[in-house]
Amino acid sequence: MKEDTRKAASEAGRYGAPALDKGLDILEHLSQERLPLSQLEIARALARTPGEIYRMLMCLEERGYVIRDEGTGKFRLTLRLYEMGHRQNATTLLRRAARLPMEALAEEVGQACHLSVLSGRMLLVMMERIPLCKVCLAVGEGSRIPVLRTTSGRLLMAKWPEEETLEFLDQLEDFTSLSKAKREKLLGELSELRGASHLHAPSGMTEGVADIAVPVGEPGSEVAGALVISYLSGTRHAEQLARKYLDALLQSATEMNRNLGILA
Length: 264
Fold this sequence. Notes:
The protein has helices spanning 2-15, 18-32, 39-45, 50-62, 80-85, 90-109, 151-158, 162-169, 173-176, 180-193, 238-260; strands at residues 66-68, 75-77, 113-119, 122-129, 144-146, 199-202, 209-217, 224-232. By secondary structure, the chain is of the alpha+beta class. The radius of gyration is 25 Å and the shape is elongated.
């Protein structure tokens, strides 16, 4: 038993970074406070001694992450973390995370795939990848499509909080022009989709075409999209192909999320 305990402690120490932990604890705590805090107040909140966090505060101040008020000497966050987080916008992050997985996906299944995001009141096809030497359906990178006519648009909206979804829908003529019964039916469908891993449905744009969409990124954030394969649904072996496409899409979405730093 003692041997196991020593081994566990050894492994924990091998990967631990106490100084980094203290620095992150300070930043996270200050981010939750509306008013500046003294060294003693921070130490008490983190259950540490003032001496433990003194050097860390000095380092964070020197690097520009925290600043001291001239009058009180209390610490507050600067905008450095905000600036770092916004050096790469959501579009750049998604494109980088998606490029290789989408290229591999298109070659694996022999079909074009595209990544769509919500842009204003429209759905934007941000990226598309087409396999080499194949005849396949293509949507067109840069295409803008009414949200409610797309499988990916409905899937993305279903991941939002209900209030945000209703507020967004009230701005869409495609929704407000529907009868009350049809609006309620659509809202019910979106509610059922809230926890879904994918949406497989007939295309709202082209007859005889079906779409399979899976969500990627952080639902409800700017870094959120839908990875989609569109295919001819009336062909032989369409059902078997659809299962193949879905498995490949889910695998690619997992890889994209990993590239974004989102762990399952």
